[in-house]
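Proteins fold. Shown next:

***
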Amino acid sequence: MATTTIGSFPQTPEVRKARSDFKKGLISKDVYEREMKNYIDECITFQEECGLEILVHGEPERNDMVEYFGEQLEGYGFSQNGWVQSYGSRCVKPPFIYGDISRPKPMTVAWTSYAQSKTDKIMKGMLTGPVTILNWSFVRDDMARGDVSKQIAVALSDEVDDLQKAGIRMIQVDEAAFKEGYPLRKENILAYEKWAVRDFKISVSTAHKETQIHTHMCYSEFNDIIQTIEAMDADVISIETARSGNELLKIFKDVGYKQEVVPGVYDIHSPRVPSIEEMVKQIKLLLEVLPKEQLWINPDCGLKTRKWEELKASLVNMVKAVEIVREGL
C-alpha cells in the first residue's frame, strides 16, 4: 500500500503570475526558473515531512495538462481566447493541431530531474497520454484521428526514453480522457479502442523493464472497457472511485485484474478535509475488494484546484490513516 498523489499541486496566484510574467517578457528566464524551483522545493519538503512514499514535483510550470505539451510539440497552434468550459467554473484553452506532430526537444526532463535531485525518494515523471492530448485538442480534419494520435504517441515515447535515461524510474502517462473519447455509435467503438490502446503502448514502448509505468483515468464507468484497460498493460492504474462507493472498483476484482490499482480515497473536487477515521474506513473497504499487495493509496485526482491548507491537512490525514491500517494487518 504505497502512498502517492496523482501529480499536480495547487496552482497558487504567485505561480500563475510568475508564468504569466515570463510569457509576457516581464521577468527573465533565470527569475522564472528560480520561482518554479522554489515551489518544487516546497512541494518536496512537504511530501517528505508528511510521509508520502512516492513523490511528485507539483507541476508549477504547467498551465494545463494538454496545452503545456502542445506548446512544445511541432504541429500545434494556440488561440488567444478560445476558452472551453471544463467543469464548474473552470475553463481550458485547447490547442489546435494544424500539421504533423513531432517533439523537437525534451519537454519535462529538466523539471523532473531537478526534483529528483532534491530527494532520495522515487520521483514520478508526469506526462499526458496521447489519447487525452488528442481528445482535448482541436484536431485537423484532413487526417484520421488515429493517425494523429499515433504521431503524438511517437513523440511521447521519446520523452519516456529521455526521462528514464535521466534516472527517472517511475513514469505516469495520464489518460484522463480515454473513456471520454469513445464514439457514440457502437459500430465505431472497436476501431477507437484498437488505435487508442495501440498508441498508449507506443507512448511507453521505450520504457525499460525496470521502469514502472503508471496511468490515471478520471471518473467514468469502467465495466464496459475493463478488457481494454487490461490490454493497455500499465503496471499501475489510478482511478477516481471516491464518489462511487467503490462500485467502480469491483469490476477489477470480478475480472481478476492482475496489475496494481490506485483507487482514490477521498474526493479532491470538494474543499472538505476528510478525517483520519473516515479514510481508515475507506481503506478497509478497499481491502475488501483488492489485496494489500495490489493496492496503492492516493487522492482521487490531481490537486491543482485545491488550496494549500486543504491539501496539507488532507494528505497528512491520508498518510496517518494508511499507517493505522498497516498496523492492523
Observations:
- The mean pLDDT is 92.
- The first helix runs from residue 13 to 23.
- The two ends are 11 Å apart (CA to CA).
- The longest strand covers residues 96-102.
